[in-house]
Amino acid sequence: MGYSLHAIARLVKKSRSTIRRYLDDPINYWKKVQCAKGRPRKLTTRDERTVIRTASNSPKSLNDIRAELKLNVCKSTVRNVLRRSGVIVSQKMKKAPKMTADHKAKRIDFVKRNMGRKWDTVSLYTTYSEIKNIFQVLFSDEKKWNLDGPDGNRHYWRDLRKDPQLFSRRNFGGGSLMVWGGFCNGMKMKLQFITTRETSVSYQSTLQKAIVPFFRNKRRTHVFQQDNASIHKSISTQNWLKAQKITDLEWPAVSPDLNPIENLWGLLVRRVYKHGRQFNTIQELKDAVETEWNAITAAELRALVASMPNRMFEVIQNNGGETSY
Fold first, then answer.
1. Pairing of β 222-224 and β 136-146
2. What's the average model confidence in pLDDT over 220-238?
3. Matching CATH number, 101-154+170-317, of 3.30.870.10, 3.30.420.10, 3.40.50.620, 3.30.559.30
4. pLDDT tens digit string along 90-129?
């Protein structure tokens, strides 16, 4: 047809070098393609399965795997095996508190004690006698906020065509802010700004301002949730709660995944530090945290409380282990 190599390549959607190799020897072309398999792999299929099994959910390095299996290959070969597997990827390990068998047993006991209780709001069809027996929880926790951004690693979508973005922390003049927060189904307490060195006495003063008005308002069906920090469980604080006639919920140790306020903090962090925002002064940070806290809706709070039954089900499913929350 008188076509040039370029025109043929465009027509059949192949490269010009492919067209040239075919035209040079059209009879033996496919034989050459099938024979050109490249250098044979240094590891057998069985070796590759062993590499994948050794790496599975393990913090071992590529060199550790190579040494343990006594493989006479470089670490790039091990990396290629894991990459081809399709099931092994490098991922940052999620932080979680260390749980002992005793911790898990106590978490299961907590679930068994509270599984049958009602965590959600009162239905319009609930009778007065049922309302008196409703068991509701006021969740609470403390949170530290930094001027330069949240603790932990920061991620972004890197455009390789541009200079990398850097996360800058000031060498001097940085600061942090401690807050106490609490909420129940559809209602949140006024945010309290506290010191970084709280004592039992100062903690009781915070609770006096934050939760005593809530419990005085005929909410004796509610109980107060707090973690097992020393100032929370001190004899002084426990006596103070009894004097205020506030029931303290027995809470299992190392169980932040059971407390929905942790998810509320995460929601707040994303909004306060949106688009990598940083702050110049503590007052500026305080205003931003307070503004976003006040903007949390009742529907968002109800959704968090409504997750409690699922959290407890996961504790049972995982034999007391960590949940996905």
1. parallel
2. 92
3. 3.30.420.10
4. 876 666 667 899 999 999 999 888 775 555 443 333 333 3
